[in-house]
Design a protein that fits this description.
- The protein has about 160 residues and is of the alpha+beta class.
- It has a single domain, classed as Anti-proliferative protein, N-terminal domain (Actin, Chain A, domain 4), CATH 3.90.640.
- Helices cover about 40% and strands about 15% of the residues.
- It has six helices and four strands; from the N terminus they run αααβααβββα.
- Strands 1-2-3-4 form a four-stranded antiparallel beta sheet.
- Helix 2 crosses helix 4.
- The longest helix is centred in the first third of the chain and has 19 residues.
- One of its GO terms (cellular component) is nucleus.
- Pfam families: BTG (PF07742).
- One of its GO terms (biological process) is negative regulation of cell population proliferation.
C-alpha cells in the first residue's frame, strides 16, 4: 500500500490540476475528486504493482482519455456530479498518464512529448535515464489543452 502512495497521489493531483485549470469547479469538489481518484487507483493497482519489475503491468495501470473517458477518472468525477460530457470539455481530449513504480509521466495529444511528473531512483542502484535527456514539460499542459484535430488548421493570432 505505502509503496505506491507517492505515485498515486502525484497522478491524482495532476488530473485535479488539469480540472482546476479549466475552471468552474469548487475547491471542495476538487479535493473530493482527488481523494476519490486516489482511492480508485489504489484499488485498481492493488495486485498490479511490481516494484522489482516497474514496467510489468504498465498497460493495466495506464490512465487514458482518447475520445473515451478513462473509467477511473469517470468514477471519481461521478462522485462529485461531473458527467462524462463535462469532463471531456474540461480535460484534454487525448491524455495518457502512466503510473508506474518510481515514475509517473504523461502525454497530451497522440504525438505530444512525454513529460515526467515524478521520478525516484529505483532501489538496487539501477539508475534510470538521466533527466537532462528529457524535455521538461511542466508548462506544456497549460499551453496546449489538446492537440488540434486533423480536420482544421490552427489559426494564429499575432499580438
Amino acid at each position: 500500500g505505502a509503496a505506491m502512495r507517492t505515485e498515486i497521489s502525484t497522478a491524482a493531483a495532476f488530473v485535479t490540476r488539469l480540472l482546476r485549470a479549466a475552471g468552474g469547479i469548487g475547491e471542495e469538489q476538487l479535493r473530493c475528486f482527488r481523494e476519490c481518484l486516489q482511492e480508485a487507483l489504489r484499488e485498481h493497482y492493488k495486485h498490479h504493482w511490481f516494484p522489482l519489475l516497474p514496467s510489468k503491468g504498465s498497460g493495466y495501470r495506464c490512465i487514458r482519455i482518447n475520445h473515451q473517458m478513462d473509467p477511473l477518472i469517470g468514477k471519481a468525477a461521478g462522485m462529485i456530479g461531473l458527467s462524462h460530457e463535462r469532463l471531456f470539455q474540461l480535460l484534454p481530449s487525448e491524455l495518457t498518464l502512466w503510473v508506474d513504480p518510481f515514475e509517473v509521466s504523461y502525454r497530451i495529444g497522440e504525438d505530444g512529448s512525454i513529460c515526467v511528473l515524478y521520478e525516484s531512483p529505483q532501489p538496487g542502484g539501477k539508475t534510470s535515464k538521466p533527466l537532462e535527456s528529457r524535455t521538461s514539460c511542466k508548462e506544456e499542459w497549460r499551453i496546449g489543452r489538446a492537440s488540434p484535430s486533423k480536420n482544421y488548421s490552427m489559426m494564429t493570432v499575432s499580438s
